[in-house]
User: Fold this.
Amino acid sequence: GMSAERTEAMLALRAWMFETVYLSPAQREKDAKVAHLVGELADYYRAHPGALPLDYRVADDGGAEDAERRILDYIAGMTDRFALKTYMECLLPAPYKAHLMDGIFF
Assistant:
């Protein structure tokens, strides 16, 4: 196994990472923004189920629970970049889209 000294160093590093990176105020702010983006995308697909790729659309007899699972599965499979691009394309007003999509993020 690991020596006591090495174990102690790893635990100290882990504690530092949680304190200064994972749970920092800046990270909590980013987490809130991501949660907002994901929630907005889910609301968009609930209101526009036809915008989902065919593989994620629900048959008429699929029910609301199946529709919700498919929406969340689709969003969960998105990369960060694709989720942001989709958010901008689907939810931002046109004047903002033109400004943001001219190479800033992509």
